[in-house]
Amino acid sequence: MKTAIILGATGLTGGILLRKLLDDDRYGKIILFSRSSANLDHFKIEEHLVDLFHLEEHADKFKADEVYCCIGTTKSKTPNDETYKKIDHGIPVTAAKLCEKNNIPCYLVVSAMGADAKSKIFYNRVKGKMEKDVLEFDIKKTYIFRPSLIAGDRDEKRTGEKIAKYALSFFKPLMIGALKKYRSITPQEIAAAMIFVANDGHHQTRIESNEIAELANAEKYSE
């Protein structure tokens, strides 16, 4: 059986991913690196409460068959630009560095639709720079997931995001063809797609939102 590492297991997508992996017979151990506990008592879980800004200090424990990085924040939650970059860029890149160092063959990381290292939009630029830097490491398989707006209930209040979700939900039936990638997507779909790709592979390194939804369906039918 395989061992998986999850970064961000206390978040929306990471929490769902954790539960899916705990129910998956292909996995015997799930290692968590987090600032706070996932508060789950399960024989598969090995939990390390650490400062993720200093993840390299725990390289000796960072060993697995796959690494899932679901780390992310928002400008409203993290208004300081430097702290924001340390979270959305620094942590995923450090994880990639540790994958290379410890010969972990598969790295899966959540980015965002519109990520572009040359973008004038701060959020997109940070995500794009993260993608660029992650891909510079010598990892056998790296997959970058670029979801559209993630539809799901979060603990923190995000009024603007809720309005956007309702709007995208209303127009979803009309978003076909090239517009499909702009449809909102659920964290369940992202988690399912990541697990499917980790086990079955994919022909592309960057996976857009509409493709994530298709892969999630593939995972559902493979169960």
Automatic annotation (TrEMBL):
<dbReference type="InterPro" id="IPR036291">
    <property type="entry name" value="NAD(P)-bd_dom_sf"/>
</dbReference>
<feature type="domain" description="NAD(P)-binding">
    <location>
        <begin position="8"/>
        <end position="130"/>
    </location>
</feature>
<protein>
    <submittedName>
        <fullName>NAD(P)H-binding protein</fullName>
    </submittedName>
</protein>
<dbReference type="Pfam" id="PF13460">
    <property type="entry name" value="NAD_binding_10"/>
</dbReference>
<dbReference type="InterPro" id="IPR016040">
    <property type="entry name" value="NAD(P)-bd_dom"/>
</dbReference>
